[in-house]
Predict the structure.
Amino acid sequence: MINVIGLGYIGLPTALILAANGTKIIGTDYNESLIGTLNAGKTTFDETGIEKLYKEAVDSGIQFSNKYAEADMYIITVPTPYEKENKKINPSFILSAVESILKICKKDTIMVIESTVSPGTIDKFVRPLITEQGFEIGTDIHLVHAPERILPGNMIHELKYNSRTIGADSTEIGEKVKAIYQTFCEAEIVVTDIRTAEMTKVVENTFRDINIAFANELTKICRSDDMDVHEIIKIANMHPRVNILNPGPGVGGHCISVDPWFLVGDYPGLTNIILTAREINDSMPEFVLERIHTIMKEHNMKDFSRVGLYGLTYKQDVDDIRESPTLQLLENMEKHLAPALKVYDPMINKKIVESQYLSFDEFLNEIDFMVVMVSHSHLKQHIDKLNGKLILDTQNIISGANTL
Ligand code: SAJ
């Protein structure tokens, strides 16, 4: 039996797919209303395929509870916030999960940490906690780090088809855990040591951050000298060894905009490209704001209250707003003491910010100038409604619109 601790964006799909593939699972979360929702037959966030998986898991006997359960193996999928001031990871949720597990677990228990951690976190914080409580690592508790790699918006597919990394102290335990993940994962699963697994995960997200920063820097260069960045990227990408990512209004989400800071925080003298890339991506919401000002000036438009931002989530077709470029932009606006822009997002059905609309038609009625921050499928289905509006398209999906 496996107890999955933390039923958020990663824990829930992981618990469901394990259960649906025949493993006995108890999913635990301290959030009572979340457990209530799951026990009432509903999932807790939007994700392609999650409803179907939920039904399969329930049919296979998955249980949801507020309490930790006595199990053969624990999978910890709790959040790992980072502290903005010192750019370091805050492992408190992981440590509190480990402590709770130690209170009830039997000897010879496998403890898998899936949450992303900065390299060295397990050595620095988790091992001492386990030994301080009188447990011996390697006999009483077997530690494993199996970082998740799935892409929000395509999670269920990627759970099945993305390769994975299992970091363990002993190959035998690593192989045991690998066999469990192989019940649902059809891709290659590499067994390595814990520090390598920790570092690899952070490196993957840092690689993507740097590549997005390159596209964003090109955008600024091209804007400064009147060149078409999208045409240039399209042509450059025809080269067999060039693959430039898409420029955009910034990098959001709880992964790519956070993980590189772990390296900057831990290796301040050695992280030059990584730090610069972070700064470039963090500067993009302000760059969008400057473009809004310029376009308004070009069209003799003075009234900020007639400008609307389409998209509040950190990327298309997800309902997650963490670190979203739109929220960053609104924060920047406050710094300028300008009135908040109007906002609409089809994926968000409750008010997050003051100036938000819950109806697309009402939002459109109130604005003359729309800024596309996120390329939700919804927008592609309603392009005809934008006729006559001034558009700044940060995602390059509307032909003929102003771009970054
Ligand atoms: N973005 C761009 N341009 C691009 C691609 C993305 O501006 O060409 C922006 C997005 O709009 C978004 C942000 O970057 O604001 C991040 O989006 P994403 O789709 O690149 O990645 P995440 O954060 O949803 O998921 C990432 C993935 N990591 C990698 O692709 C290396 C995923 O596989 C990880 O599991 C996830 O982080 C995680 O949890 O760590």
The chain is about 40% helix and 15% strand. Residues 116, 148-152, 204-205, 208, 212, 245-246, 248, 251-253, 255-256, 314-315 surround SAJ (CB under 6 Å). The mean pLDDT is 96.
